[in-house]
Amino acid sequence: MTHGLAALLMIAAFQAAPAQVEITPERAEVEVTESVQLQARALDGAGRVIEGVAVRWISSTPELASVDASGVVTGLNAGMAKITAVVAGRPTSVSVVIRALPPAELRAELGTETPYAGQVVPIRVRAFNRLGEPVDDPALTYRSSAPDVADVDAAGLLFARSEGSATIEMSGAGVTTQAGVTVRPDPGLAYGLEPREASVRTGDVVRFTASARTEAGEEVQAFPEWSLGGTGAQLEDEKGQGVFVAEEPGTYRVTARMGENDVIS
Fold it and tell me: Are residues 155 and 127 in the same domain?
């Protein structure tokens, strides 16, 4: 009888540790809500691709971008996102630029759509992306269909010149919007400024109020542009009021411009 011994050899296959991990593309750029596919591959010391490796993807800036298990990066907020691929404990990172969504819509607000001739009216234009979120306002250009009725300067101030109607066009970043304005005849507006004089200490706050009335005494909404003569003090517009604060002793002149040729100080 022959006896034999059999030995069962268990051979464990160990995957070679990568000497290098490459991510492609090395740099990507997407807009918010857009996605880009990243690929990672592991190389051995001879530069050969190691097949079948497991890749773990990590977003080091999750507030800017997310990344799923397959390496798809989705932009969440504008900025420079850092995405890392980890293979066998070896991390490699790339940067993904997340661009803010550009303006897709402009919304214009006029101080009034029915100014009197002679009034100066501010135009506020706000920009929104395709998701309806506010974005930084682009540089704007203005055009009036009837400049002799109502014209607009580069700062977005509308000058009501004569009775009639005009369409104001505002353009920026490839987006355009329009607003209609109807200029009423000049009712003989008279302007006022209160207080006319003030004596205060440094640090005190003085609020100046501008007003406009017709010859019949009807109060009309005023849109003053505030300016300050002298240094050592601050003057800011706060909901139409001129808010003055003196930082140094002295004499200052507060001026409110409320019409193209009407200045009160």
Answer: yes
